[in-house]
Amino acid sequence: MFTNGSKKAVWLATKRIAVKSRLYGHRAAANRDTQSIVQISRSNIYRFGDPNFAVPVFRDVEWTVDEGESWAVIGTGSKQKTALLQTLLGHLRITPPPPLPGGLFPFLSDPPRDPHTCVALVSFAHRSRAAGGAFYDYTSRYGAVREEDRITLRESMFGEYDFLNIQPKGGKVKTPIEIAQDEVKKGIFEDLTSRLGLSSLLDLPLIALSNGQTRRARIVKAILSEPELLVLDEPLTGLDVNTRPILLNVLQSLHESRSPRIIMGLRMQDPVPDWISHVALVTGETILTGIKDEIMSKHAHHRAKEAEHSMASTTQSYLQPGLDHGKPVVDMQNVNISYGPRKVLKNINWTIREGQRWHLQGANGSGKTTLLSLLTGDHPQSYTQRSGSNLELFSRPRQRIPTPLLCSLIGVVSPELANAYPRRAGVSVFDVVGTGFDGGFVPGGKDGVGKGLEGTLSDEVRQWRVKRVREVLNGLGPTSWETETSSFAAGDELLAPNEVFSKRDFLDLSAGEQSIVLLMRALVSHPQLVLLDEVWSGMDENMVRAARRYLCEGGVGSDQAVVVISHWEEEVPWTVKDGLRRFKLDDGEGQEL
């Protein structure tokens, strides 16, 4: 029981929190309503270290975000969109700089607050340079099935939040005011996790969660840090069709209550939420800002022409409908995956044959990632199916296929692989594509095209591999998706754009460029099974169009099976007329549609 003095302290603390809380309720300061959130006036934007006479990243930028407006940054190229969002974090130089005292963020000037603590970015692009160059084994999480190895969502994402514990660690006793503060924060946490469908997942191991579920958790964690401005780069990536409107409704209510203010980064092909009032359209080094309908209508005519060209160029397909006679690549009969009493996959029956094209569907948490780990042979339970169940890959039980051989037979693109792939200085695009032959992550062998299963390659095989890398680079390189490309002089040699691209460090590429390079890696060996999980992540419109065209026009052959895992039906390169088949998971149960 609290004493009268304690009760008064608790009441005062709760009152202060209720007023201070940016998550529920408007701020009362009238002068803040007249201040801009973001202010850039007729400036060029440069990389740090570049002189003013260098080519700027953006030229003649005029961008003002006023209180009450709802903004989305839309990029025709992923690199440019990300650069503008990074400008808000102070990662690029604005010249001339926004004038003081307001600076880039006038609303933080009265009272003065530090933008480094008040502005936060959550990006769903792949790992950045800062994440380190080492590879981490993303498949090891499937081994964490012992009770002592389990790390729950609550422990992983929210373990540092003291308010989730009645008493803090270390035996320190909380004061009544601290307890009251914790109760308010806990209420906010419980409300957000409930609205975003995370409450029932908090005490599940991370292994049991989908990419979309962990992404929602990352957004909750960012909101709990109480930024004044939260920048979300591609927040709809990886979310199923039912979850997208739920998240957007939550973001709208938070933005309207300034708790926090939200700026979203979207790809050109992403739907723009109805509640967005203004957009910054980023095209090359130009930024067009203004009211959403006006800006988008100016771009609509050009986009319609591109879409028409895209449909015309992707309607042709080398796939013959109804290929049921190919050899089985994957054969699942009554396959189950469970963690203790919790069943993740239930009696899955699915046969994938050479030449077939499949669209794997299912809501976040339905079991798609787990099923994918069976197709790749990564999951430990792929070795240990019980009597009455059967899993065969390339007509052999998983335990009878050496992992190096399996890696050479399967080409994979997935969020897990993209996040885990090493970003090391000196590793070129050519090197990364070359690792696709053996399925490894470190360039090896003469010419960087691997050593093969026997540890050495004949000259004939090595030369074929080098030629094959060039073919894929020419099919999916910059000349296929950049509107403007230029050659580069290296000594007396004039290098073509795709050759220049092949020599660039993978580390220095944008998220979209890294995604398309990892697609090249998955296709380069002409594997029998190609798995494309969220393959378009980070790619801009032109890249997606080029990749779709390449896949449909011979990038994969009639002797290869392809499974596309995507929430966006329109992003699957093939249609039912092309012989596309659909397999849907619902709460761990699967069936062909």
Automatic annotation (TrEMBL):
Q: Which domain of life is it from?
A: Eukaryota
InterPro entries given in the database record: ABC_transporter-like_ATP-bd, P-loop_NTPase
Name of a matching Pfam family: ABC_tran
Which keywords accompany this UniProt record?
A: Hydrolase, Transport
Q: Name one GO molecular function term.
A: ATP binding
User: Which family does the record claim for this protein?
Assistant: Belongs to the ABC transporter superfamily.
* Protein name according to UniProt: P-loop containing nucleoside triphosphate hydrolase protein
* Species of origin: Suillus placidus
